[in-house]
Amino acid sequence: FKKVWVYIVCMDNKILKVTWKDFDELMEELARCIKSSPIKPKYIYGISRGGLVPAVVLSHKLKGIPITFNPSEDFVLFIDDISDEGKSLTYYTSLSKCFATATLFIKKDTEFVPDFYIEEVDGDTWVLFPWEKEDEPRERTSKLDEFEDIKNRI
């Protein structure tokens, strides 16, 4: 799978804008990789927020692998949009004894390299997915930090 990406530079941010067509091509390739591997997960778990859309699409493309809302199910495929620092994937995989991991992108300096990923980008690249707003803050906060903040408010 080789794609030429167009980067936008905006106010010290290097942005890779993923279109819905790009997303579908990435998901096709990810599904192909998973189907051709010896790894056969029983469930798919989409890590909130970025992994939710990929989880639904992957469930359809892998025909028959259901989505679960229980990360401790037996042999879960954890999916996220990107492994930025790797904190979310590290946390969720700690909840399961038998799992595999997948993302569409990884950053070169991530601490967690998933079992399956399609593209690698520089650490200073902001990957903008089609379900995200272009005017969202470009802060590099982890989803795990957001999760901990919500948990502490409850």
Description of the molecule:
This protein is of the alpha/beta class. Helix 2 links the parallel strand 3 and strand 4. The chain has four helices and seven strands. Helix 1 (about 20-35) packs across helix 2 (about 50-60). A four-stranded parallel sheet has the order 3-4-5-6, sandwiched between helices. It has helices at about 20-35, 50-60, 85-95, 145-154; strands at about 5-10, 15, 45, 75-85, 100-105, 120, 125-130.
List key phrases describing it.
single chain, 154 residues, alpha/beta, 4-stranded parallel β-sheet, 3-stranded mixed β-sheet, 4 helices
Major sheet details: 4 strands, parallel
Q: Structural class given helices, strands, pairing?
A: alpha/beta
Overall mean confidence score, pLDDT: 85
Query: Uncertain regions: pLDDT < 50 for 5+ in a row?
Result: none
How many whole angstroms does the radius of gyration measure? 15 Å
| Strand order across the largest sheet | 3-4-5-6
Helix coverage percent of residues?
25-40%
